[in-house]
Design a protein that fits this description.
- There is one protein chain.
- Helix 1 (about 20-35) packs antiparallel against helix 5 (about 105-135), helix 7 (about 150-170) runs antiparallel to helix 10 and helix 9 (about 215-245) runs antiparallel to helix 15.
- This protein has 15 helices and no strands.
- The protein has a single domain, classed as MFS general substrate transporter like domains (Growth Hormone, Chain: A), CATH 1.20.1250.
- It has helices at about 20-35, 35-45, 50-75, 80-100, 105-135, 140-145, 150-170, 170-190, 215-245, 250-265, 270-275, 275-295, 300-330, 335-360, 365-394.
């Protein structure tokens, strides 16, 4: 546990460097386009006649493609600059959004979703790996929290705007706007000039450990299960909300994103100083309660409350769980970051697919309660296996 492996050695220094800020902006602009898909795609697919099973697969394909791609991106970061990989991801994403204007579900759009997953893996993994490995160790958890403001802020802003755009201007204007955003992300990534600390191994030294860090799997299961739940909710909550008479489900995501931004902006010291294990357990328990409340909620105010409370927990959980997993494995190189982000994607990929098959049999209420049960299993796994195993290694 005390071996930091390939972690950066510096323990002090500046957190908000030029490259940190530009890298954050590039990731934010890219994710503004990507996160706007959360409430709009289920609505878009439903209007084109897709059922829940097809919607689950089409949404899950993106995360599945990202999962596989991250493993290769993690290895590629040992050889290529992070900004080059970020630029490649932004370019692929722009092409995929432009293709969305012409093609419709199922198989043509499945290919588009696959490309979007590859693009997300490139820009997200490269941005996180670069920041993790150039940030002083004393600020690592806080840096992860600040970087994760990008998906939170983009979700808060882009989710309702995406629904508004596709409702009032149509899918063509919406997808074209997303393509423009990803091209802006490309130019911002090009402006990152700093030395890459991730490329620590010589080219040609690729082996299994260059792509996968097996030591990180045990703690990463905790986040896998949480993102399985979140992927399911993100995919089908918009349809449930519309069924309940809510016209713009994006407000749920907006409430969640705004609270996450606020918590990460002002809660950096909490993430650095509080017990990571206690924070993880607290969030998982709160998530169980919110899923039960969501199962019996039918109005926009209740949905906003659930989204806000979920945002409080998620603001701390993801960066804390990621930092905890990196500490547990004793490494923070590109392979470690790629592995843990790939496991996150596995949860996001499987969640919509599995729940898409369950909903026609059970309905939305039972589906939400099923997800609450998964969270209960997750708490048990973390408390009785991960924590005890870690204590045995200290």
């Amino acid at each position: 546990m005390n071996d930091e492996g390939n972690a950066p050695r510096q323990t002090s220094g500046r957190l908000f460097t030029r490259d940190f800020i530009i890298g954050f902006l590039s990731l934010f602009v890219f994710l503004a386009a990507d996160r706007s898909l959360a409430p709009t795609l289920p609505i878009f697919f439903t209007r084109l006649g897709s059922n829940e099973s097809e919607i689950g697969v089409l949404i899950g394909i993106c995360a599945a493609a990202s999962l596989v791609s991250r493993l290769f991106v993690g290895g590629a970061l040992l050889k290529y600059q992070a900004r080059s990989i970020m630029m490649l991801g932004a370019l692929i994403s722009a092409i995929a959004f432009l293709a969305s204007i012409a093609f419709r579900p199922f198989w043509p759009f499945a290919i588009i979703r696959f490309l979007q997953g590859v693009a997300l893996a490139c820009i997200d993994t490269a941005a996180f790996a670069s920041i993790v490995n150039t940030t002083p160790l004393a600020y690592r958890t806080r840096a992860l929290g600040y970087v994760m403001l990008a998906p939170s802020l983009s979700l808060a802003i882009a989710a309702p705007i995406g629904v508004f755009t596709i409702n009032h201007y149509g899918s063509t204007v919406y997808f074209f706007s997303c393509a423009v955003l990803t091209l802006c992300a490309l130019f911002l990534a090009w402006a990152v000039k700093g030395q890459e600390a991730v490329a620590a191994k010589k080219a040609g030294s690729f082996h299994f450990s260059s792509f996968v860090n097996l030591k990180i799997l045990t703690p990463a299961v905790v986040t896998f299960l949480e993102l399985f739940v979140w992927g399911s909710v993100a995919a089908f909550f918009p349809l449930y909300a519309i069924q309940c008479g809510v016209t713009n489900p994006g407000h749920f995501f907006s409430a969640m994103g705004i609270v996450m931004v606020a918590c990460r902006m002002f809660g950096g010291k909490i993430m650095d100083n509080c017990d990571k294990e206690k924070l993880i357990v607290t969030f998982l328990l709160a998530l169980i309660v919110m899923l039960i409340v969501l199962a019996f909620s039918k109005t926009l105010p209740m949905f906003i409350i659930v989204g806000a409370v979920w945002g409080i927990g998620a603001a701390f959980f993801v960066p804390v769980a990621m930092a905890y997993a990196l500490e547990y494995s004793g490494s923070s190189d590109g392979a470690s970051v790629g592995t843990i982000r790939a496991i996150f994607d596995l949860g996001l990929a499987l969640g919509p697919v599995v729940t898409g098959m369950i909903i026609p049999l059970t309905g939305y209420r039972i589906m939400f309660l099923f997800l609450a049960f998964i969270c209960l299993v997750n708490v048990s796994h973390f408390h009785f296996y991960v924590r005890k195993r870690r204590m045995g290694r200290l």
